[in-house]
């Protein structure tokens, strides 16, 4: 078995089991060989026909795992939920003699703690497959408490966003590390676990304990840092780190989703096309392969039907794959199909309890359908998970703007701007054009016209050919009485967008005011007074997201 010659191992395991007159340990190894050769039902039968699953924890676990591998989830759960195996009980001498059981603290070199932990882990996977996320979460937590070295349980909890940030921190503090580890191992585990949890923290220089010096170059640790940069919107730094990982390990499982998301954010279509085709060729049964293909079609535009087809395949392969559900929602959102988009986002929110993105996108859809109350509720939930995320702060500010709370909107917009500046110069700047324009809008509402003009001009630097920005600059100039400048900007706006009715209307009024024909403007003060009947074409901007 150690040489992966499973057929040879199976042949000899069968002969040894016969020679030993079906010794339980030899039958267990026979079942292991059958499992490794994908003969799941034979392996289960070898154990259950001899009732070994009722006597030994290791046999119970292996039998259940066989049915799990065969996608017979209820049968697997029934085996795990049976009465405790006899080898785990303190049996009296009579029972021992009747059954011939040798009671020992281990089942064939497997400690009781590791068996119990493996059973809890498997139970969690079964609940996950049966769409029972709360029980799956509880099982994973129990598995990790029984054996703090069971990293798979920890990884499933964190990578699937099953816990909120605070719940993750509380759970880490509750783990019995000191009871199950030496002092050195305690420090190592605490460093590795804590590093994986801080995805919403601001990226900073890593402090590596002296006794584990060298781990800063470990690929898993680098991916955790890259993920932190991603959630802090520093996509260029994230791309630099993930690219380094992909060079060393081209198909690093934890790195791929972050790398794909970064390629989308940076609009690297050719690179994503090449990567997605490689993944589909090599790993056609892995959901991340089809997720990559779906993201590519989403990015190139006007291929939303193709994107949905491949993203649907990803969710079919793994129903709990949250990133595919989010991208699936985006494919509807770009077509303004709000109901279908929200259905996908709600599914993602149920699967990714600890991730703020599904809640943010649900709030966006409610905002676009003018349901500001529900939008505000979901934005607040997203903000509680990721309080430092400038995208979320921006959307909360938009809701405050819609509700007429200009002061609160201004504060939140400025807070979002401060967060962006704190990230540094490596941020993709054109993403923040809506924020600058919205700051201009709220300053205009507060009659801070000079500041409003400054913000709109900054937005114009980011996206120079945006007609609505020229239009709103002209509008601010008209409010300041500078009709000559207003006319110039409205002309420019109409040059970029000829059917802009607001610019046409305001251009006419400004020309009349400029030539001094004030009588022609009587009764039209609502356009430029504090209670305007007409609003700029982009009264507020929601952020646009790819992933």
Automatic annotation (TrEMBL):
<dbReference type="Pfam" id="PF12895">
    <property type="entry name" value="ANAPC3"/>
</dbReference>
<keyword id="KW-0833">Ubl conjugation pathway</keyword>
<feature type="repeat" description="TPR">
    <location>
        <begin position="467"/>
        <end position="500"/>
    </location>
</feature>
<dbReference type="GO" id="GO:0031145">
    <property type="term" value="P:anaphase-promoting complex-dependent catabolic process"/>
</dbReference>
<dbReference type="GO" id="GO:0045842">
    <property type="term" value="P:positive regulation of mitotic metaphase/anaphase transition"/>
</dbReference>
<keyword id="KW-0131">Cell cycle</keyword>
<keyword id="KW-0498">Mitosis</keyword>
<protein>
    <recommendedName>
        <fullName>Cell division cycle 16 homolog (S. cerevisiae)</fullName>
    </recommendedName>
</protein>
<dbReference type="Pfam" id="PF13424">
    <property type="entry name" value="TPR_12"/>
</dbReference>
<keyword id="KW-0677">Repeat</keyword>
<dbReference type="InterPro" id="IPR019734">
    <property type="entry name" value="TPR_rpt"/>
</dbReference>
<feature type="repeat" description="TPR">
    <location>
        <begin position="433"/>
        <end position="466"/>
    </location>
</feature>
<dbReference type="GO" id="GO:0005737">
    <property type="term" value="C:cytoplasm"/>
</dbReference>
<dbReference type="GO" id="GO:0016567">
    <property type="term" value="P:protein ubiquitination"/>
</dbReference>
<dbReference type="InterPro" id="IPR011990">
    <property type="entry name" value="TPR-like_helical_dom_sf"/>
</dbReference>
<keyword id="KW-0802">TPR repeat</keyword>
<dbReference type="GO" id="GO:0051301">
    <property type="term" value="P:cell division"/>
</dbReference>
<dbReference type="GO" id="GO:0005680">
    <property type="term" value="C:anaphase-promoting complex"/>
</dbReference>
<keyword id="KW-0132">Cell division</keyword>
């Amino acid at each position: 078995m150690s040489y992966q010659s499973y057929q040879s191992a199976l042949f000899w395991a069968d002969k040894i089991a016969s020679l030993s007159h079906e010794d339980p340990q030899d039958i267990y190894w026979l079942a292991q060989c059958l499992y490794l050769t994908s003969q799941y039902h034979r392996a289960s039968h070898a154990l259950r026909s001899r009732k070994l699953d009722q006597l030994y924890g290791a046999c119970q676990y292996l039998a259940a795992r066989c049915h799990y591998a065969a996608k017979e989830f209820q049968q697997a759960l029934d085996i795990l939920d049976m009465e405790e195996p006899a080898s785990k009980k303190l049996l009296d001498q009579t029972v021992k003699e009747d059954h011939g059981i040798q009671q020992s603290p281990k089942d064939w070199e497997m400690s009781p703690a590791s068996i119990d932990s493996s059973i809890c882990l498997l139970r969690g996977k079964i609940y996950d497959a049966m769409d029972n996320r709360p029980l799956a979460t509880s099982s994973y937590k129990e598995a990790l408490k029984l054996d703090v070295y069971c990293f798979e349980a920890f990884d499933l909890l964190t990578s699937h966003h099953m816990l909120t940030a605070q719940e993750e921190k509380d759970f880490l503090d509750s783990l019995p590390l000191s009871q199950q580890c030496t002092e050195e191992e305690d420090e190592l585990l605490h460093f590795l676990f804590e590093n994986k949890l801080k995805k919403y923290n601001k990226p900073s220089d890593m402090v590596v304990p002296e006794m584990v010096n060298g781990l800063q170059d470990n690929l898993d640790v680098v991916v955790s840092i890259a993920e932190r940069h991603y959630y802090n919107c520093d996509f260029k730094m994230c791309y630099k780190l993930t690219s380094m990982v992909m060079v060393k390990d081209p198909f690093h499982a934890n790195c791929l989703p972050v790398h794909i998301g970064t390629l989308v954010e940076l609009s690297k279509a050719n690179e994503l096309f090449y990567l997605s085709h490689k993944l589909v060729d090599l790993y056609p049964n892995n959901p991340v392969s089809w997720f990559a293909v779906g993201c590519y079609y989403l990015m190139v535009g006007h291929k939303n039907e193709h994107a949905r087809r491949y993203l649907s395949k990803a969710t079919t392969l793994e129903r709990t794959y949250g990133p595919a559900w989010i991208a699936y929602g985006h494919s509807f959102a770009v077509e303004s199909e709000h109901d279908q988009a929200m259905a996908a986002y709600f599914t993602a929110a149920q699967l990714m309890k600890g991730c703020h993105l599904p809640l943010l996108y649900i709030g966006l859809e409610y905002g676009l359908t003018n349901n500001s109350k529900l939008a505000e509720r979901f934005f607040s939930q997203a903000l509680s998970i990721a309080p430092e995320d400038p995208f979320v702060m921006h959307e909360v500010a938009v809701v405050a703007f819609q509700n007429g709370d200009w002061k609160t909107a201004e504060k939140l917009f400025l807070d979002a701007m401060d967060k962006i500046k704190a990230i540094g110069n490596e941020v993709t700047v054109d993403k923040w054009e809506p924020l600058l324009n919205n700051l201009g809008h709220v300053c205009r509402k507060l009659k801070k016209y000079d500041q409003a003009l400054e913000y709109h001009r900054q937005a114009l630097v980011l996206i120079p050919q945006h007609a609505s920005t020229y239009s709103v600059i002209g509008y601010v100039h008209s409010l300041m009485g500078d009709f000559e400048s207003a006319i110039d900007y409205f002309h420019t706006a109409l040059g970029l967008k000829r059917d802009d009715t607001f610019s046409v209307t305001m251009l006419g009024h400004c020309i009349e005011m400029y030539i001094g024909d004030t009588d022609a403007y009587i009764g039209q003060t609502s356009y430029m007074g504090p209670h305007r009947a007409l609003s700029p074409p982009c009264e507020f901007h929601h952020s646009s997201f790819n992933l």
